[in-house]
Every structure is written in C-alpha cells, then in structure tokens.
Specification:
Blueprint (H helix, E strand, L loop, with lengths): L5 E5 L5 E12 L2 E8 L12 E7 L4 E5 L3 H14 L1
C-alpha cells in the first residue's frame, strides 16, 4: 500500500481517520471511491468497505458517504465484475 492509496479525513469529532483506497469507479456521471478504514474507528470496523461519492470544485475533492442503497449495490456490482 503506497501513500497515494491512503486518504485521511477529519471525523465529526475532529479526529483524523485514515482509509485505504480500494477502488475508483464511475457510475451515472459521478465518480466514486471504495475505502476501507486502516483501523477500527468508533462505528467502523477494519474490514468494512464504504462507498464515497467524489465531489470536486476543480481544485480539491470532497468525499461524501453514499447513503443510497441502490447506488451502493450498483457500485458493488461494478467493482465485483472488475475483479
């Protein structure tokens, strides 16, 4: 795992949370990433993959947890078909 594969966020409590980049995918004109926590955080286990929608303003990217189950299922299907 290289440094490019690590994405770090500040959680709601202000503490940093680091994730491993598992995959980058496009679906319905949006970009998504699948991330896995590098360690256990409050409500996240290390083996739990999370789908984030990537939003960009042209300078920086923001990552928003995808909550739509249909989109999550579609992303999962795309990811598994590429394995």
């Amino acid at each position: 795992m290289s440094k490019e594969d690590i994405i770090t966020f500040k959680g709601e409590n202000g503490k940093e949370m680091s994730f491993e980049l598992i995959a980058e995918l496009s679906y319905l004109d949006y970009d998504y990433v699948i991330l896995r926590p590098l360690k256990k955080y409050d409500d996240l286990d290390e083996d739990q993959a999370i789908v984030f929608r990537v939003e960009s303003d042209g300078k920086t990217n923001s990552y928003v947890i995808e909550e739509n189950d249909e989109i999550i299922d579609a992303i999962d299907e795309i990811y598994n078909s590429e394995l």
